[in-house]
What we know:
two-stranded antiparallel sheet; Jann2411-like fold; 7 helices; 197 residues; two-stranded antiparallel ribbon
Amino acid sequence: MSKQSRKFKVPDQLANLYDFANTLDVRRFTHHGVRHVQGDELKGPRELGAWMSQRGLLFTGAKITPAMLQSALQLRTGIRSYLQCDPVGRRKSNDAVRSLNRALRLFPLLAEASSDRGVALRPAGGDALAALSAVVAELYNGFLTGTLDRLKMCAAEECRRVFFDRSKPATRRWCMSALCGNRTKTRTYRERHRSAG
């Protein structure tokens, strides 16, 4: 769990998924006169290894190859495409489902029984990247419990950050209503008055 997932009270069961989806920061807005700098936490194999290590998903000394990085980026793209869809329409979006399925095939899971945890999903592969299957397991478990429907992508085009919707009716559209929601509403208001005038 990261500082961000704790700050925004993302449930532990979705924290790695939330953090992984937000390793790509495409926000492009100015706030209080400061232009937001876009970034990618997973610029190379070393950065992916560090990200995984910080979350206990990678054993010390395990090597991430460029091909493994590409698989991880494909997984992130698939997850972000899926979360971009409105929760009601996710399963109906053929493109998002296809993209996600292509990525998920690279991270197979096994169901395994144990005496202390019952039945749990674990990585089926054994390479260094297999630990990212924990992110896939969170996606699967979130789908089963319905909490995945509360993980959404901000509707503001200049943001696109993944957020956890804690509102009771689960109808939030923006990661932060005071920022992204307000910017969007203000822009819509100005455009409406400009076209009316």
